[in-house]
Amino acid sequence: MRTLTIALAKGRTAKQVMKMFEKIGITCEEMNDPDTRKLIFENRELGLRFFLAKATDVPTYVEHGAADLGVAGKDILMEEGRVLYEVLDLETAKCRMCVCGPAEAAEKLKHGEQITVATKFPNITKEYFLNKKYQTVEIIHLNGSIELAPIVGLSDVIVDIVETGSTLRENGLQILEEICPLSARVVVNQVSMKMEYERIMELVRGLRKVVKGE
Amino acid sequence: MKIEKLLHTPDGVRDVYGEESALYRELEDRLRKVFLSYGYSDIRTPSFEYFDVFSEERGSVPSRDLYKFFDHDGNTLVLRPDITPAIARCAAKYYDDILFPVRLSYIMDTFINHSGYQGRLKERTQAGAECFGYGDVDADAEMIALLIRALRNCGLTEFKIELGQVDFFRGLVEEAGIDDDTAEELRSLISGKNFYGLEDRARKLGLPEDITAGFVGISELFGDVSCLEKAPKITSNPVALAAVDYLKRLYSLLSAYGMERFLTFDLGMLGNYTYYTGVVFRAFSYGSGEPIAAGGRYDRLMRQFGKDVPAIGFGMMLDTVVSALKAQKIEITPARCETLLVFEDDADHTSNLTAITHARQMRNAGENVQLLKKTRPMEDCLAYAKSAGFTRVLYACGSEVTEAEL
After folding, report:
1. Does A122 touch chain B (CB under 8 A)?
2. What are the chain B neighbours of A88 within 8 Å (beta carbons)?
3. Is B219 on the interface with A (CB under 8 A)?
4. Which chain A residue has the Cα nearest residue B284?
5. What structural domains does chain A harbor?
6. The whole model's pTM is what?
7. What is the ipTM of this complex?
8. What is the mean pLDDT of each run of 10 residues along chain A (214 residues)?
9. Distance (Å, rounded) from C-alpha B94 to C-alpha B285?
10. CATH code of the domain made up of B18-327
């Protein structure tokens, strides 16, 4: 049996996803050791191998076939635009991609005038403003603490992930428009899907049952 | 960042030399033989052409990923990102009346300006075949048989050819009367194999039960030939069912070629369904993250070049074939130079003349031989011979040529 390699985004998502895997009888003892510095974990009996990668890199591993399947956030899949199969919505790590800013910035989103948008997701931002809203925007790419940008006057609005909205509120910002809902998705390499269809679909069917609480 | 430009190749292109280059050459030789064995004649088109030939309705690559430049008259030119539109253009121009099928094959480089740091090559060699003016299922069978033969002759034994038919989806879309955006949404869910997402989305559309069942049921039309039997239970759409019957006929023809064991089916393969008009297929093997080859029927393409004739073809990327061969540890031994002829560096050049005469005779007899003037001690020459992979060393001294111990 060929070993199937699964890429997970390290951190909270990995823990949530591993819980889902446990419910369908897939465990990986090695991974539960909090002190481990290992990068790859193996379950030889099931012919599975897990590794933890930075969330944004999961689609890259899967696209190249270095991992047969992976779990990544919809935000990253949209931003990266990789060629892979997105087979299942795990309905966990739910949040939304939103345009946010101070209340008075709402007016600027109405008239198609050129505005400045700060974001970690330039591709999603471009797609939304240029192809959906038909508004010309200048995009400023930032790597973190995006909420700062409109406060200190770097941009008019931001495009970012909103989970509870508390960071926004504490900083006097609000959701102005919702771009799309987000959640963790199972993605599969195109070739792996063909060559290992039954094994992969068995995993997917199992996870779907967990998602639906069956 | 300052880089030493004199030594390095730009991102996305690479040198291929030594054994690897010989491997590519060997694969190309084998492919040319296979193409010829099916009566396909070789064609070459220019490396760059007018932008319009490869624009979005004809090409497979978005405009921003093309290498563009201008000629003296201000026309936009592009390095070819893809081969098929170029060959279609060429065939439309050179063949007045395509009364008999025109069969063409090629091995040429393609250039795509991917955004950087993705581990993708920007210059890749593609081999493929096209057949114009032959619109029947037997033309499809021949094209797929040719692809299978080509992959086998490259040394691959474990691979799958997956067949689909875009009319199945098209028939359902027409019957449903949904708009292009909705159709695109469903297409992307189907071809992304997001079957649960598809089911949710299709149910929300509020279409008649039969059509919804058709869209959702595409996921079951996947696997070996027996999956096709499920089609009548999934839909009663005549276009969709005709598409399935077409695949059955194709299967029986390919069985006559003795190639049915390589075939699987996937009616959800809808990569570019507005471009393709009938059968679509892709080849997969272990060890390469992307399909090795892809193709299909595109009967509307030639019309854009002013000739209304049907067409089918495929293209395969040689570097993915090489990755698959390497991953599967399949050894290909290309022809190589076996003999090193070392000659003494004497003042009157006697040894040199002996070596030249001897090498000439060997080459006339079809043998490969490299000459080496002995400017270093013999043991160094022997070490060089070993490291460069020679299997035989000859030594010319005066008028004598002797066998040297390697």
Report:
1. no
2. 194, 196-197
3. no
4. A191
5. 4-93+183-211 (3.40.190.10), 95-182 (3.40.190.10)
6. 0.85
7. 0.74
8. 90 86 86 80 90 93 94 93 90 93 92 91 94 91 94 95 92 94 94 89 92 84
9. 37
10. 3.30.930.10
